[in-house]
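In the current project phase, work has continued on tokenised descriptions of protein folds. One protein thus recorded appears below exactly as we store it.

——
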Amino acid sequence: MAFPNGFFIGAATAAHQVEGHNIHSDYWAQELLPHSSFTEPSGEACDHYHRYEEDIKLLAEAGLNAYRFSIEWARIEPEEGKFDENEIEHYRKVIACCRRNHVEPIVTLMHFTSPVWLIRKGGWEAESTIEDFRRYAAYVTEKLGGELKYICTINEANMGLQLAAISRRFTLMAQQAAAKAKSAEGSVQVGMNFEKMMENMKYAAAENAEVFGTPQPQIFVSSRTPEGDALVFRAHQAAKAAIKALYPNIQVGITLSMHDCQALPGGESFAEAAWDEEFRHYLPFIQDDDFLGVQNYTRTQYGPAGQLPCPEGAELTQMDYEFYPEALENVLRKVHEDFKGDLIVTENGVAVSDDSRRVEFIRRALAGVERCLADGIPVKGYCHWSLMDNFEWQKGFGMTFGLIAVDRGTQKRTPKESLAFLGSYAQ
């Protein structure tokens, strides 16, 4: 089947990952710590801040009709309560560029990065963040709302609980290894020095205290408490109310990171618990939203003892995810059981060096979207992650998710075959 008229076929980016020199943000500060856990700093990134016209034009020329990008809070409000008019004008120009190229701008207000001042106040565990985010959302909407139809308030708002679970597993492993001292270092099939890791954690605590005023800054991608988890969604609700008060017709939603949670025999209760934590317990906060941004990359399987590793012999991506594009269809169907609003795939993609595998990933993922549409599930668009190879957070520039290659030395853009392939679905 062909996608219906008005269906979005687009690509996504996040400001910090592509713009470069995001100097007022918490991530920039963390990248520059002497004992940073980042492979490398973001620096100039892809210089999208200055090259957005070229990038949006490449997207449009390939046939894509939507661009999901984020507005950087740390640029807009570098100091608490002080808004930078020049920066809001920059994003006005980005939106205008989308319109000139017949591309629908889908804006995200907060994609992981926050202003340093917010983190100094307690970050994403502080009650005051709700009002701070509401005020920022109101300012952006007041200035740009007349030119927007879609706003995602917060990207992967459920990320904190996922990280908390991973953090608990890693801490347990580290504690066990430290207790067994040297003998444990040979029990993992990778060169580990747990004593050195623990030592670095002490350095990081002192360095964080200097920059953020606390040894454990609560950035957006910190392990979150249940209270912090709810706080993020209350911030979303406050922002949505502010947006709707100014422009009732803007479609407002949030995006969630979701795995295709699959149960093998005996693993049903683990899969259900994982899905509840990732999605279902948020329903009271989002059930009245105009749409939900669905973000999926792979599946997670569960057996009688809990989460399982990737199946033996599975194709793995650069991120060590299982190559499994069918996950997207399964997640869309599962979400639709409980959330009856519109669905937009705001991220789905794969980090591979062989672009023919990306083409195959897109082909299979979109076949699943088509089957969902045929069954009446209200999917309104698909935004591939990512428009270009970019700064993949702590992993640096080594992970290639992009439809466009970027030469880090010259910033030259080279569209990959996958860009035109994705664009062919929008023809």
Observations:
- The longest strand covers residues 104-110.
- The mean pLDDT is 93.
- The radius of gyration is 21 Å.
- The domain at 8-159+224-261+283-301+342-426 is CATH 3.20.20.80 (TIM Barrel).
